[in-house]
Design brief:
mainly alpha; three-stranded antiparallel sheet; 7 helices; disordered N terminus
């Protein structure tokens, strides 16, 4: 094995080790891949990084940011750059421009319609859930179990809506906390609600 080949191999091994270190340093680690590509305009050793996108817009924002390539005919001379390129691509995708929620970029007229839409959708979803729960109660599904099923179904629906609406995970969690806070405030204010009624009681 030649010295150059050993140098390149050692650099790749060090780069893979660095990629694993970076994964342990963040709650949203970049996934770094080191690939060999032949036959196109990126032919050579390619280092690519991606952070798991929470929305389609976030996925698009990373396009082209986290890829670096060393052509084959330059690889021996540039082997010492490989570890640094791992840091570079990971930082590039981590610094992808944030994508705001749609409701934070609309005008006042649209936001008024947005609030009305929230109320209308909430009523429609609740009525549909109650209809299904009433039918399931007749099939010997307890009201408590039905309420839990409604919660899980609502969370799955919320996750899909958040993804297509470009709403990130942190915002999802904040909205859930606020919604739970509103419910708990109503429970504390009403002795009737404090007895933990089921959704369709």
């Amino acid at each position: 094995m030649t010295r150059d080949a050993t140098s390149v191999g050692g650099a790749i091994a060090a780069a893979l080790k660095r990629a694993e270190e970076l994964r342990s340093l963040s709650d949203r680690p970049a996934r770094v891949r080191i690939m060999t590509i032949f036959g196109d305009d990126r032919s050579g050793l390619t280092i690519n990084a991606r952070i798991a996108a929470r929305t389609p817009a976030e996925h698009r924002a990373q396009e082209g940011l986290g890829t670096r390539c060393i052509p084959w005919d330059e690889l021996d001379a540039r082997a010492g750059e490989i570890v640094g390129l791992v840091d570079e691509v990971a930082l590039a995708v981590r610094n992808a421009p944030p994508v705001p929620r749609p409701s934070r970029s609309e005008d006042d007229l649209e936001l008024a319609a947005f609030d009305d839409l929230i109320d209308e959708l909430g009523q429609t979803i609740t009525q549909s859930a109650l209809s299904v729960l009433e039918a399931q109660t007749a099939k010997r599904v307890s009201r408590e179990l039905g309420s839990e099923a409604a919660m899980l179904a609502a969370l799955k629906f919320a996750a899909l809506a958040a993804y297509t609406g470009n709403v990130g995970l942190n915002d999802d969690q904040d909205e859930l906390r606020m919604a739970m806070g509103e419910v708990m405030s109503k429970v504390r204010a009403s002795p009737e609600l404090a007895r933990r009624p089921s959704l369709n009681s």
